[in-house]
């Protein structure tokens, strides 16, 4: 579509592979390291992208981890770690990008959730399912809040996708 894609992740090698796949398909892309657990990093990456490329037209919030942990072994720390990435990480990046989108009166945000948080549960993944259900609430509330400013927010809930995380 002619957009420049900025791929972010904590996994630099995997992020670089995505960039190379986009370029091999004729697209334009670059990688920037981002740990969504850091408000400062989220804000810095958004500022850097806006400074280098101008407006952020579309934002795909796809941060997520899943670790199998039976409920009796699910500590507060493991719960918080999952929510800090899967839910709060998306919030941090959206919050950083929304002022620019709202000021321009345009933009689109897509939040990746999961059928495990929408339609089904996932045994030994209570923390993941709860965080992904929270992403649906985040998307719905953001959509209502920013629609009048010309920004669209949607959530997509894919089923099983053959990834390392699923394995």
Quick gist of this model?
By secondary structure, the protein is α/β, with parallel strands linked by helices. It contains 6 helices and 5 strands; from the N terminus they run βαβαβααβααβ. The relative contact order is 0.14.
Please describe what this structure looks like:
This protein has helices at residues 12-24, 39-53, 76-86, 88-104, 115-118, 126-146, and strands at 4-9, 28-33, 58-61, 107-112, 151-156. The chain has 167 residues and is an alpha/beta fold. It has a 3-stranded parallel sheet with strand order 3-4-5, covered by helices on one side. It has a two-stranded parallel sheet with strand order 1-2. β1 (4-9), α1 (12-24) and β2 form a beta-alpha-beta unit. α2 (39-53) runs parallel beside α4 (88-104) and α3 packs parallel to α6. The protein is globular, with a radius of gyration of 16 Å.
Separation of termini? 32 Å
Mean pLDDT: 94
How many E strands?
Answer: 5
Rough shape?
globular
Q: How helix-rich are the residues, as a percent range?
A: 40-55%
Strand order of the largest sheet: 3-4-5
The total of helices stands at: 6
Summary keywords:
167 residues, alpha/beta, 3-stranded parallel sheet, two-stranded parallel sheet, 6 helices
